[in-house]
Design brief:
195 residues; alpha+beta; four-stranded mixed beta sheet; 6 helices; 4 strands; 43% helix; elongated
């Protein structure tokens, strides 16, 4: 299923009542009681159409909230644990990708990119020998402790076998060494932390 909220798995029909009257056989046209009966049935069917469409739309991940979002979390194996809807929705998206992951370096980077919200962050991966990986990312705001723990667990779940892995989180404006175009000098840049 697409994550684009404009692409839905169902089509809304706003003219159910009008279609019912338009398709009425000609021998019943001009008969007020039959037209009233069909108009009433059309109004009931239109109400059902609105309810059906709203049910489907409210169940998509992008538009779900509250208990419906918790159902999504149960499907992928993530509990809410007091999180608001938006951070919880993001964790569900990341868990969905992690659950489909094949634990390759590319999959690791794809999950990390989704964690850091594409377009608002920079990230990368350094392979250290022998058999060690450092995944790093810089974004605007540090994760709070609850989200940080969840993201650490997600990254550990898809860690490639046989590798040690360190995940480093930095805020924009981090301390960097000479040659790093995004890094700030000592005393000005913010220190990174291990996730």
């Amino acid at each position: 299923m697409s994550t684009d909220p404009t692409i839905l798995p169902v089509t809304f029909r706003p003219e159910v009542a009008e279609t019912l009257l338009a398709r009425m056989p000609s021998q019943f046209r001009g008969k007020p009681r039959i037209e009233a009966l069909l108009a009433t049935l059309g109004a009931l069917l239109q109400d059902r159409e609105h309810r059906r469409f709203n049910l489907v739309v409210s169940r998509t991940l992008d538009l779900a909230f509250g208990a419906v979002l918790e159902q999504w979390g149960a499907l992928v194996g993530e509990e809410r644990a007091g999180l608001a809807d938006e951070p919880y929705r993001q964790i569900i998206r990341v868990r969905m990708l992690a659950n489909r992951s094949d634990s390759t370096v590319d999959a690791l980077l794809a999950v990390w990119a989704l964690i850091l919200e594409p377009g608002r962050s920079s990230y990368g991966l350094n392979l250290l020998h022998p058999m060690s990986i450092v995944v790093w990312g810089a974004h605007d705001d540090r994760f709070d402790e609850v989200v940080r723990g969840r993201m650490r667990r997600l990254m550990e779940d898809i860690q490639p076998g046989g590798f040690s892995m360190t995940v480093v989180e930095a805020e924009t404006g981090y301390f960097g060494l000479a040659g790093d175009p995004n890094g700030r000098p000592l005393g000005v840049g913010k220190l990174a932390r291990v996730l």
